[in-house]
Amino acid sequence: MAGSTRRRTEPVDAIWLSMDRPSNRMVIVTLMFLASPPDWDEVVRLIRTRVVERYPVFHQRPVAAPLGVGLPRWEDDPAFDLDRHVSRLTLAEPGDDAALQSHVEEYLHLSFDPRHPLWEVQLIDGHGDGAAVFARIHHAMADGISLARVLLSMTDAVGSGRGRRGHVRAPAPGREAPGDESPPEAADGRSGGLGGSVVAGAALVRDGLGQVVRLGTPSGGMALVQNGILAAEVAAQLLLTHTRASPLGGDPSAYKRVVWTRQLPLDALKQVAHLEGGTLNDVLMGAMAGALCRYQQGHGVSPVDLVTMVPVNLRPLDRPLPSTLGNRFALVFFTYPSGTTQPLARLAETKRRMDWLKRSPEAPMTFALMGLIARTVPPVERALVDFFANKAIGVTTNVAGPRAPRLLGGVPVTGVLGWVPGSGHHTLGTCIFTYAGTVRVGLMADAGVVHDPEELLAAFEDEVAALVRLAK
Fold first, then answer.
1. What's the confidence (pLDDT) of residue 413?
2. What pTM did the predictor assign?
């Protein structure tokens, strides 16, 4: 195997190792849907050459520091066996989405054996006329955006002539794997989206010294004052934000449920975005706010605004991933206007709140905060992470995948989903994944609190349909 045999775990990565608990495993879950069963031997080869051999953490295990003092290390697993991490199976009859959902749910509460690398991939036949790839990867290895890029690096562009045995050599460490030749586009159709705005904000934070130098000029001094006021507002929000009691709140159990929508066409949703001069992301978040509103009403309570945490990528999408991977993201709080009952009013308020987040320095501030938390002792880490996590009902991810269809082992990929773990009292994870002109939305709900995620998913689909009708 390529790569060093030992390296220190980065502080932020170590957080996810210490935060693992039965009620919320720190595991990222992904699904890739395929139009037909591929040559699985070829897929295994792609996993070995484009993932395991390129990213050493896939053949390494975490080892505690001597005497338990200091950060753990990643070390090569001397007994590494790819067959331990990759398995093949056939889905139980009738092989529909419900059967696949039940199969995935059987694994969501399971932990990894720390004596070996913290990941597994299942190659699943019998999902309708097609197949699926189900992966579980510990958050300590990488963040969700990076892992999406890693998994998509196994795919190839249509017409590339790649993806068959012998056609492509494995990439050298430090270079992008075939199939990862261009960064995924933002969900709103533009490069960057919320993530781009946050990266720009992070750059401004790094350039803070230059702002101090310019303090002598009137414009520079005013800008510094304005940024200071905005930072103070964000700090207050981080401390004071909280989500209100609702049917989606409670103490999480060890077991989770997963459901997902059919493929939804992007063109109709972009028409909705034009109603308020917003983005596709605004529409999808607004639709989820509507679903949360309907769900609360369906459970006999007056709807209230609910808070979710949104991961924001801080890694440049136009550069290759580092071979060490790791976590490079921030978390921001987004308050769904789920207490608003009028669809267009919800959409307008969603856009207003998203626009505020794009202008604010919240993401670089929370990234810096995570770095500070990572340098404390594990009990303090858990207490601080829970303090902030408990301000939200869960995590909402919005990943912009490739605009053009991809092939895995020569077979068309028809869709992708991926959920990041929750923590604290999180009970609802939401995944929005755009791919090749369509979008799928998946929910991971705590089985002990949100007993009927199908109802919430149906409410989301109804909300999307209602917005599309309004746009027309």
1. 97
2. 0.83
